[in-house]
Structure formats: C-alpha cells, structure tokens
Design brief:
By secondary structure, the chain is mainly beta. The protein is 14% helix and 41% strand. It binds copper (II) ion.
C-alpha cells in the first residue's frame, strides 16, 4: 500500500477508498488531492523567521527546493510584515507577538529577496534573502534532495568559486584606525555609529550598522600604558553604547547602559577614557539592543600590545609572524553568515608564501558557535581571550563561541589554494556551491 492509499483510508475509510477506485480516475485524483493536502503541508519543512526593530532574523534563510512553510513571528514592539520583493507574496501586517505561516509551494533553486514594507523599516535593516536550494539548519538535508541535475550543481559551484577568484572585491572593513595623538600623548579614536549600504556578497546590499561605515569596525591597536580616548558619535536611529570586551577598564567605562552610563542617544557623543593597563586581544561592540546592533555590524577588534610567539614552536618552523589577520565571525542580523563582514564569494582572499606564518585572531560577534577550519596547516592555538597559553595547543578546527577570541598561528608548508571555512556545513557549502563563512589562503 502506498502513502496515497493510506491517506485515503485514514481520511475516508475503506468504503470511500473502494468507491473512489470504482468511479473514474477524475474522482480518484480529486479525493487524492484532498486526502494528501493536509499531511503534505505539515510534512513540508518549517523555518522560523523573527521580525524585530529592525531586522529579519535570520537575514539569510536557507530552504530546500519544493514546499516550505515559513513561520513568521513579530517579536518586536512595532507592526511588521514580511514580503517577497519579486512575487509580492506577503504576510498581513503582524502585531507584536503575532505569528503567521506562509506556505510556499514548489520553490525552485535561486534567491528570493524579502523585506518589511512598513515605511522606513526596510531602510533601517529589515531586509533579507531566502536562498532556495541550500539546506537550512531547520531542515533535514537527507529528506530534501535537490531538484538540480548533477551537471547544474557542478556548474553552479564552479561559477560561484570563479567569482571568488575573478571578481574585484568591494570595500572591506576592519582597517586600522590611526589615532589623533593629543598634547599629553593620549591616543584619541573617533567612531561614528551609522547605518550604511554594505555589500555582503556580490550584488547583495544590506543596511549595515557600522562604526565609521565599515564591517567589522576599524581595528583599534594601542600599546600597554597608552592613555586611550574613544569618542562615540551616535548617528543611529536608536540609542547605543560601546562595551570594551576583554579589556580592563574602570567600571564607568564598561559601556553597559543603564548599569555604568546612560544610553548614548541619537545625535549625542560619548567619550570613553581609560589607560591600557594590560595586553589584550579584545573587541569593542554595542551593549545596547545588542542582539540586533552587534550582528548588524557594530563590532570591531581592539588589540593592546603584541602577542609573544612561544619559543616551543621554533622546531615547527615558527619563529616570527609574517602576517596578522583579524577574523570576525558573524551569523545573524543584516550581515548574516560572514567572515569579516563578507559572505563568499565576496570574502577576502589571503595570500602567503611557503614558509610564512600567519597569526589569526578569531573573534565571534555572532549568535552561534563556529568551528573554523583552515585546510592543510595545523594551527597552533597560542592564546585564549588574549591570554597566552602555557603550552600551545594544536588544532586544525577551532570551535569559537560567541564572545570568544582565539589566537592561532598557521605555518604554510605546501603551495596551493587552501579553503578556510566554518565547518558547520550549512554555514559554508550547498548545492549552489560555497557560500557564507568561506574564504581561502593562496600559498605560493
Ligand atoms: Cu558556522
């Protein structure tokens, strides 16, 4: 007995099934439709989407091709909706707390832009993308084979990989911010929090919440003993503040309103002032509506001093650092699954020579843990949260949780293009090829 026959029996009973078979095919198929429609809808994978001020979370929704139920909840305090740009399919305007399920039928592989059409909300960041043909975390990949042919899949993968190699990269974030040095030697850093258009992947422009117009925010680097001033100018539509994560500061400078200061209102400037007392591999980020502001881009690296290279790694060929890389992980808000604010193929490609050592500071500013894997060289973890380890620890895959920092040395022995990606595979590669948290090191 096949599933349709079972459905018939469960809905109409044995008598109805017999009647359907006795009458013509038309009757049978009509009853069939009725019989299977309810189970089919509930069997379609369900994906949860949250609407808040001002984000669609997750901003990148991966769904399998075919039938999918989107369960959309307004978790914010204003009225929101979710609309598909191209088809116009939409929820009604949802009141705070309301949920509506959209049943999407027969989706084909591709990208569908989504947004909230309440005036001003799209511009403030309520935009996203439904990627059909990926295998989202909420789905069971084994149960949802792709509808592509293997030739189509191979072609899509190659096209995407070649875009990583061939296309010019859009502006990258995380560049070092040079301080203004005041008369008493204080290093002053000027940060403006503002929303800008940010290309997270080729052709996909989002509203990023940035420090100085870039994601990650500019790197701040000082020496132990430096007097530091950070001016925060708030050009956002809501209040904000800056927390210096992993950095020893006086309590009043910890940037956690309302505990340690008042919120910095739109249009206001707040001055943070402290002395850099200890070495740090830290970060600075918003501690105000952080679940929205930080994943949307309000985060950057804050480094104090230079990390010592353990003498015990000399026999591995590691004696000096040829290149330092800050690698900020994100997975939510308008920025989504990204390395340094970019999603593959827009991610930066790194280059090195055989024999080089690269120091990587991983920072996780997202909402999930990411196991970061560089192909080929064994990484040596030399510091956790900025504190040198007594003994370096080998790791080719390093699990970086939200808020954590790991400092890892990679020593390149073999030439080639080596992939470097998050090893939660639906953050990295689907039927359309590599996406999200993927880049590469080109070793010559
Ligand atoms: Cu990941």
């Amino acid at each position: 007995m096949n599933s349709d026959e079972r459905s018939l029996l469960s809905i109409g009973g044995f008598g109805l099934a017999i009647a359907a078979f006795v009458f013509a095919g038309f009757t049978l198929s009509r009853i069939d439709d009725k019989a299977v429609s309810a189970p089919a809808a509930s069997a379609a994978p369900a994906v949860e989407i949250k609407l808040t001020e001002f984000a669609i979370t997750p901003a990148t929704v991966e769904v399998p091709a075919g039938d999918v139920n989107l369960r959309i909840t307004n978790s914010g305090t204003l009225v929101h909706n979710l609309s598909f740009t191209e088809t116009g399919m939409a929820t009604r305007d949802l009141q705070p707390g309301e949920t509506q399920t959209l049943q999407l039928k027969d989706l084909k592989a591709g990208n569908l832009a989504i947004l909230c059409t309440i005036p001003g909300h799209h511009d403030s960041g309520m935009a996203g993308m439904v990627i059909v043909g990926g295998t989202g975390a909420a789905t069971d990949p084994a149960a949802t084979p792709t509808t592509m042919t293997y030739q189509q899949m191979d072609k899509a993968m190659e096209d995407r990989a070649m875009r990583f190699v061939n296309e010019p990269k859009s502006a990258m974030g995380g560049t070092r911010l040079e301080p203004k040095v005041l008369a008493d030697g204080t290093k002053e850093f000027d940060l403006t929090a503002k929303i800008v258009d940010w290309e997270v992947e080729p052709g996909k422009i989002v509203k990023a919440w940035t420090y100085n117009g870039m994601v990650p925010g500019p790197e701040i680097k000082v020496n132990v003993g430096d007097k530091v001033r950070v001016l925060l100018n708030n050009a956002l539509p809501e209040s904000t503040d800056i927390h210096f994560h992993g950095i020893r500061v006086p309590n009043a400078m910890d940037g956690v309103d309302p505990f340690t200061q008042k919120p910095v209102l739109p249009g206001e400037t707040f001055t943070y002032e402290f002395t850099a007392l200890e070495p740090a591999v830290g970060m600075y980020h918003s501690h105000h509506n952080a679940q929205t502001q930080v994943p949307n881009g309000l985060a950057g690296a804050f480094i104090i001093g230079d990390m010592p290279i353990p003498a015990s790694l000399a026999d591995k060929g590691i004696t000096k650092v040829d290149q330092s890389v800050n690698m900020m992980l994100d997975d939510a808000g308008t920025i989504g699954l990204t390395l340094n604010g970019k999603s593959f193929p827009a991610t930066q490609a790194y280059t090195a020579k055989v024999g080089d050592t690269m120091l990587v500071n991983y920072f996780n500013e997202g909402l999930m843990t990411h196991p970061m894997h560089m192909h080929q060289p064994t990484g040596w973890i030399i510091a956790k949260d900025g504190v040198p380890l007594a003994q370096p620890m080998p790791s080719d895959t390093i699990l970086v949780g939200p808020g954590e920092r790991y400092t890892v040395l990679y020593h390149f022995l073999d030439p080639g293009v080596w992939a470097w990606h998050c090893h939660i595979l639906n953050h990295a590669e689907g039927p359309n090829g590599m996406f999200g948290m993927v880049t590469a090191v080109i070793v010559k």
